Structure formats: C-alpha cells, structure tokens
Amino acid sequence: MSTIKKKIAIFAAGTGGHVYPGLSIAKELMNKGITVLWIGTKNGIEKKIIEDTNIPIKYINFSGIRGNGLLAYIKLPIKLLVAIFQAIIILREYRANAVLSMGGYISFPCSIASFFLRIPIIIHEQNIIFGMTNNILRFLSKTVLLGFPMDNKSNKYKFLGNPTRYEDKKTNKKEYQDNIFNILVVGGSLGAKVFNEVVPKAIFGLKKITDYEINVIHQTGKTYEVAQIQYKNFDVNIDLREYIDSMKEVYSWCDIVICRGGAITITELMNFGLTSIIVPYPYAVDDHQRKNCDYLENNNAAIVINQKNFTHEHLTTVFKTLIDNRNLAKSISDNISKLNKKNSTNNICQEIITKIRGNDTYEK
Question: Is residue 212 part of a domain?
C-alpha cells in the first residue's frame, strides 16, 4: 500500500439530506487516513456545520435554480461557468485522487470541473430515484453508490445504503406497554405546519375512543406556536420541542413515528426498526419522497398517507387500528428492520478507498 496520503474532495451543500450523509462519510474517511476537503457555498447550512468540524472547506458561488423564476435560468450559463472555473482552481491546487458528489446543485459545477481535470468521480444518491444533478453525473462517474436499491445492471452501481448517525449504535426494540401509546411527531428542522394542525386534532379524537394513556413528543420546528395553540387544554402528556437534540432518545421511547419521507429519515427508521406513519412532502423535487415511500409500502414496512388525505379523522382511525392490533404494528416494525442496510458508512468508505488505492475488497 502506498505511503502517500490519499486525498478526496466532497461536494455537498444546501440541505441536511446531502450534507449530513456526506459528513458521516468524511469523518470515517479521515479516520481511515484519507485527507478530506469539503467544497460548499457560503449561503448553505454546510458553512456552519462543516466549519464546526476539523474538516477544511472551500467555497464557490453557485445556487439552485428550481423555483427561482425565469431570471435564474437566464443567469445560469454565466453562473455555471464561473462556478466551474472556481472549482477548477480549488481542485487543481488540492490535487484530489477522487471526488465524491452527494448530489444537489453544487455537485454539478464541481463534478464538471473534476471531469475536465480527469479526477475520478464517485457519486452517492440518497433517494430511490436520482436527483437531477446525479442523474446527469452518473454517466461521468466511475462508481455510483446507492442509498436504496435500484434496478441497474452495470457493475458500477452499488447498493450500500445511507450513512446515518445511528447505524452503528446498539438499538433495542421497544416493547409495547399495556394501555400506553407513545407518539413521536417529527417534521424536520423547519417542522411541518400540516403536522402541527392535524395531529393534535387526531389525538383529541383518539382520546374519545380509547382509555389508553397517550403521550406525545412533538418536534414543531419554527411553527411552535401553531402546535402550542392546537394542543391547548388537551388531556394528554405533551412535550413540545422546537428542536430535538437526541433523536436516539425519542426513537427509543416511541411506539409510532409520524414523519416526512426524506431518505435519511427513512434510513433512521430502518436503523431503529420503527413503526411509522409517513406523509411524503408533496412538493419535493421530482416527488422523490413519494417514491421513497413506495419502496416501504411495497415491503409492508410503513403506513403512508398522501398529504391530501392526511386529515385528523383518518389519522385517528389509523391510531386506533395500531392500538387495537399490536401485531400489525410489530409486523411493520419487523419489515422495516429487514430493509436496514448495515455498516453503510464503513462499506461506502471502503468502496471509495478501493477506487483510490486499487483494493477490490470491502466489508460485506
């Protein structure tokens, strides 16, 4: 094995769905002796997240265009050329042995720059369908790492799962307690206004038709006051939090999770083997959350409700069904556990190191 330290550049910006998996990979690569450089933007969440670590970060000027109007498309060619030029300067100086695209808008100019510099491109797609950027870049890449299984015949596509902060933690499945029903509501860092409006009414309806003790932890995001008003004077144990610091704690506590259908959220449900009610975000790019949820539904691994059907009456009925049929809840939990891909971060990093160092083995 060469004693020269190998280098990789990671491209991820904008959303936690790209940045956090990239961060897990970056930390593990560094633990394995690989030098890492992060390329992001000064306006994305990656600036604070990565600057709080010991990972060096460089910035280019680029942003997404979807939903930003016609003017964004008119300006795109110039912005793209400038971003590619900035990325070329950074990558030429850094002299990476390979680059890793986590998808999202920043990956495109950085990967095009890498292609011009003949640096091998590896991409990781978190969702069950390719995002717009990775869908183009996969044709330029040497290796395509998949968070969910896809029907691809080429050997360059490898299903290794999604990195999460909980994949290597020992998680014991929660045993149901008689006459107690613990509900966790998670709408992401910004919350989900529809959850704050619908879930309290559904719980109010549930209390009328069951004598179970109902306990709720509800992560509200920025719409805390909306939820607070809705839960006012409820005869249930309610813990409202704008942000949850320890998801492991609440995942281990709950009987049921209500959440969105992002790839990393779903992967965490798999890690813990949780029974869940998932409401895919209807405005997600390419409707990828709905497609992620289709995979779970096809494996009887979650209850999925489209947002247009997410009414308090329907949710109350689902709650009552899960209370009355604990075998159904256990079956859903068992099925999503079977979909869990173990050792994802380690196996992804071993695959990356394989491409850098020419070693063909990684942990199964």
Answer: yes
Q: Residue 15: which of 45, 56, 35 has the closest Cα?
A: 45
Residue range 61-118, pLDDT digits in tens? 886 655 555 665 566 688 889 999 999 999 999 999 999 999 888 999 999 999 999 9
The first and second tokens of residue 57, run together, are: 């970060």
Give the neighbor-by-neighbor strand order of the sheet with 157-159. 57-59, 35-40, 7-11, 98-101, 121-125, 143-146, 157-159
Which CATH number does the domain housing residue 97 bear?
Answer: 3.40.50.2000
Rounded CA-CA distance 83/99 in Å is: 16
Q: Are residues 195 and 87 in the same domain?
A: no
Three-state secondary structure string covering 145-195: EECCCCCCCCCCEEECCCCCCCCCCCCCCCCCCCCEEEEEEECCCCCCHHH
Q: Judging by beta carbons within 10 Å of its beta carbon (0-12, 13-18, 19+), is residue 319 exposed, middle or buried?
A: buried
CA atoms of 251 and 265, how far apart (whole Å): 11
Rg (CA), the chain: 22
Rounded Cα gap, residues 225 and 232, in angstroms: 11
Same domain as 351, residue 314: no
Domain count along the chain: 2
Q: In the prediction, which pLDDT does 362 show? A: 41
Q: Which pLDDT value is given to residue 170?
A: 61
User: Looking at residue 66, what DSSP letter applies?
Assistant: T
Q: Is the pLDDT of residue 172 over 70?
A: no
Length of the chain: 364
How many whole angstroms from its chain centre is CA 62? 22
Which residues form the domain of 251? 180-338
pTM of the model: 0.90
Q: 28-31 contacts: CB < 8 A, separation 24 or more? A: 28/163, 28/345, 28/346, 28/348, 28/349, 29/349, 29/352, 29/353, 30/55
Flag whether 216 is in a domain. Answer: yes
Instruction: Write out the DSSP string of 68-116.
Output: S-HHHHHHHHHHHHHHHHHHHHHHHHHT-SEEEE--STTHHHHHHHHHH
